Amino acid sequence: VGFKLILLSETIASMESTIAKAAIGGATSNVASSLGLGSKEPEMDEAGGIKWYLYNYPPYINVIHFDPENDPISPAARILIKWIHNTFRLVMALFALNVVSTIIIVAAGEEKAVHIFYALLFGIIGSISAAFIFYQGYRGVAANLEKNLQYFKIGEAVGILAAFLLAIISSGNVHGLAGLGSSAGSTLTFFAVVESLGWFGASALIGFSLWKVHTGGHTAAYVHTSQNSVDERELTLSV
After folding, report:
1. Mind listing the pLDDT tens digit for each residue in 128-156?
2. Does an H or E element contain 170, and which?
3. Which residue of 2, 167, 184, 204 could cross-link 199, Cys pair, CB 3.0 to 4.6 Å?
C-alpha cells in the first residue's frame, strides 16, 4: 500500500509539473504574441517568409532573429533597416559610455559613488527598452507587419523625447548640457559635451527612422513587387 501511495504521489506531482509548465509556456507565448515578439507558436513563426525562430542576435546571446543580408527583404526595406540598426548601435554605445564616464567622474571626485549604481541600472533598463523597439522595427519593416510597425513608431516617438532630454538634463548619472558651468569639474564638463552631442545625434537618427517608416519609405518595393506579379499573371493569361 505504501508503495502504491508513493507511486500515486509521484504520478500526481509529475502531472502537476507538466500542467504548470504548459500553463507558463502558454502564458509566455501569449504575452510574446501580444507584444509583437512573434506568434503563439514560435517554431511556426515565418511571417513575411522569414524564419523568426532562428535566433542569432546579439552575437553569442541569440535572443532574437536579425539577418537582413539573407532574409527575403526588399532593397528599400534593407536600407531603412540599416538606419534603424545603426541608431540602435549608437544608443547602446551611449548607455555603455554613460557607465564608463560615471566611473571616471566618480574616480575624479566630482560625483557620488552611488551614481555608478544609477548608471548601471539606467543602462540595463534603457538597453532592454531600446532592444525591444529595435526588434519591432526590424520585424515590422522586414515583413511589413502593421502591428510591429505601430509598436515601433510609438517607441521611436518616446525615444526622440527621451534622447533630447538626456542631452539637456544633468542629474545623477545623466550628464547633459545643463551640467556645464563654473561649478562643474573638467572631467564632468568633457563628458557632458560628448554625451549630450551623442544624444542629440541619436534623437535626430531616431526621428529620421520614424519619419521614413511613417511615410512608407520601406513599402515602395512591396508595392512594386506586387504590381510586377500582377503584370506577369496578366501577361501569362493573355498568352
Report:
1. 999 999 999 999 999 999 999 999 999 99
2. strand 170-171
3. 167
Residue 31 CA, chain-centre distance (Å), reads 16
Could you tell me the sign of the dihedral formed by the alpha carbons of 170, 176, 182, 186, in that order?
A: positive
Q: What share of the chain is helix, strand, coil (3-state, %, to 5)?
A: 75, 5, 25
Cα(62)–Cα(68) distance, integer angstroms: 15
Cell (9 digits) for 136 = 519591432
CB atoms within 10 A of CB 148: 23
Is the pLDDT at 12 greater than 50? The verdict is: no
DSSP character string of 206-221: HHHHHHHHHTTTTTHH
Q: How far apart are CA 159 and CA 177, in angstroms?
A: 18
Q: All 3 cell numbers of residue 195?
A: 554625451
Please give the Cα distance from 217 to 37 (Å, whole number): 23
